[in-house]
Amino acid sequence: MTLTNIRRKGRQLNDSSLAELALAYVGKYATSRAKLRAYLSRKIRERGWDGSKTPDLDALANRLSELGYVDDAAYALGKARSLAARGFGKRRLADKLRVDGIDESDRAAADAHADDQSLDAALRFAERRRLGPFASVPADQQQRQKWIAAMVRAGHDMAIARAIATLPPEPDADAKALKERLYVR
């Protein structure tokens, strides 16, 4: 017996059950309009459609946005704060927002936050991964290149990555003091 045979399919969706499903989803998860549409589309594929006409997922997502249940700009800013707190840079944020279907017009506050926090996020990443001044032993040229590559993959600017990776290890490295020394434009 396969997993699909075991799993309950549930009733087919109609207009009201689709709206209830959408409301439950936005009540539980922070999401964007595009992610909501993708979720609803997947649920229709899984459970089937019993409505009289084709469901208008765009209209439903836009209606929930008008009601304030879905806010792409707030979602983007939340993603920017979350990624910066984990040490990821602006390019990683841009990639994530593009995947999540956030329009350019809704990215302004998120991009500003990422710009403002770029050095702090890079230092958090370096501290978490024990790179540059947070390393336990000095690194050779090959190791520094690996550190730079890791920082660039995390979305950081090459100049910031190079500046952090070339700093010698400091036993009591303080991110605040390093930030003052590392002013990179």
Number of strands: 0
Q: Give the proportion of residues in helices.
A: 55-70%
The backbone outline, from C-alpha atoms, is: elongated
Quickly count the helices.
11
Mean pLDDT: 90
The total tally of domains equals: 3
Q: Structural class given helices, strands, pairing?
A: mainly alpha
Pick out the low-confidence regions: 1-7
Beta content: under 5%
Distance between the termini: 61 Å
Radius of gyration: 22 Å
Q: Report on the biggest sheet.
A: none
Write the element-wise H/E pattern from the N-terminal end onward. HHHHHHHHHHH
Q: What do you see in this structure?
A:
With 185 residues, the chain is an all-alpha fold. It has three domains: 12-66; 72-115; 118-181. Helices cover 63% and strands 0% of the residues. The protein contains eleven helices and no strands. α2 packs across α3, α5 packs antiparallel against α6 (90-99) and α8 crosses α10 (158-165). The protein is elongated. The relative contact order is 0.10. Residues 1-7 have low confidence and may be disordered.
